[in-house]
Amino acid sequence: MHRGIKVKTDWEILMEFNIDRETVTDGAAVITVAGELDLYTAPRLKENLVSIIDGGALRIVIDMSAVHFIDSSALGVLIGGVKRLKPSDGRLVLVSVDENVNWIFQITGLTSVFDIFATRAEALASLTG
Fold first, then answer.
1. So what's the pLDDT on residue 13?
2. How is domain 20-128 classified at the CATH fold level?
């Protein structure tokens, strides 16, 4: 037992995580994620991302405006999405407003891989322009 420190269970972590997806136009989709993107939740992101790509979406927005933590397993899923879209000239862009999440993209050099926008509207507009 840790005194004064509450350790979250796997179940609590998953209960705080939410993912939703929608097709916004023909060939374009948005995956909205809320909570922590980590070892426990990254597989759900991957499942949704692969499903959308396999369904024909070539322009994808991952809306992480409600994500406050991201780890290397989730970064790997996002990079995998880019690689999966590349042969079809697809594109994956991100929405992120959390300073800590954006800092992770900066220190890993992934700002050169992903276009990151402050709003969903800006991200969607970048896919059509």
1. 46
2. Transcription Regulator spoIIAA (3.30.750)
